[in-house]
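ok trying this again, last paste got cut off
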Amino acid sequence: MDNRGVPPSGARGLVVVTGGLGFIGSHTVVELQNEGFEVIAIDNLSNSSESVLDGIFNITGKKPIFEKMDLRNKASVQNFFKKHQDVAGVIHFAASKAVGESVEDPLLYYENNINALVYVLQELKELPNANFIFSSSCTVYGQAEKMPITEDASIQTAMSPYGNTKQIGEEIITDTAKVTNINSILLRYFNPIGSHSSAEIGELPLGVPQNLVPFITQTAYGLREKLSVFGSDYPTPDGTAIRDYIHVVDLAKAHVIALQRLINKQNLAKVETFNLGTGTGSSVLEVIHAFEKVSGQKLNYQIVGRREGDITSAYANTDKANTVLGWKSQLSLEEALASAWKWEKKIRS
């Protein structure tokens, strides 16, 4: 890998990670600390636990500074950034993220995902190092017309309020960058899964999981009676929906590289966009069978009707991230599923 993917010496700094105790946020905190960055993790603990700090410490030997804060409180955001003028950048994960839940409670999603973003940007634009990494999503493409999806694919009408908040978020950042000193990279994730190889941190949804893999692992462990497969009549080889499942550690490493690109002023535009995925689509049934293979567990699953807001297929063209960022996913679907199962067993033991 060339120097675009390796932080040079002397370039470390203080990084704010919002949603820093969540699934992707905690793994990114680990990778930042491994690269020598100081980290402040902000989280309101609505879908995470303070115990994640112990997992981060057990991996890296260091806990990030932790601020319990709800970013929907504008005064709290203002006070925080008054105290921390010297940040090298902000990585913004804090958001509600479940497609189905967003259909049921759209106002929660608009309040949480939009207001918090606006309040952070309002403070960031006043700082000397206004570097911003946005946790976006392949949902901004809606049901893309062509596979694999490139960054140039047209933005379709969102299929869910969640997807719409990511589209609106990107628009807010782009408009703001035109008239401020903020430089931003939008990272459009496909489907993050897995856990750290140490099983010290992983995906820990509160309540009933909204995502496929934690529902698989909880079903395999016996916490859930059966797994529902939403739809078997999609126009795909086995009738189930296709997604691009990327290991969360690969995803986390991409954030460090993207932030370093902004710190080193290597970005070629005020706002850059990259897909983060593996480039391979896997159906729901393929994921189930891969899990059964790596875990040795037979899953109890049933086919049910489609879920509102779901699309047929989405997998990434990652050429831009591979060539411009010097980043490429390294870990396989099977490795990701094995790590998720290791994590599930550890937290239940």
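PB: full thing came through this time. The chain is about 40% helix and 15% strand.
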